[in-house]
Amino acid sequence: MSYGLQGVYETTSSTSTSKDMEYHQYLRHDGPSRTYSNDSHSSSISNGGHHRLDEIEDEQLEQEEGEEEQQQQQIDDDYEEIAPDRPRLLMWGLTKSGKTSIIKLIFEKMTAGETLQLPETKTIQIHELSCGIHVRFQIRDVPGPKTTSLLDFDAYSSECTTIVFILDATEDCSDAINLLVSSMQWMHSNGHNVRFEVLIHKIDGVHEPDRLDRHSHIQQQVTVMLHECSIEEPLINFYMTSIYDHSIHEAFSKIVQNQIRQLRALENMLDLVTASTQLDKIFVCDIYNKIFLASDTKPVESQISELCCDVVDVYTDISSIYGTSKSPVLDSMSCCTVELSIGLVLYLKNINPTTALICILKKEPRINEALMDVNLNILKKNIQKLFLPNTKRLARR
Ligand SMILES: Nc1nc2c(ncn2[C@@H]2O[C@H](COP(=O)(O)OP(=O)(O)OP(=O)(O)O)[C@@H](O)[C@H]2O)c(=O)[nH]1
Question: Quick one: signal sequence residues (predicted)?
Answer without folding.
Answer: none
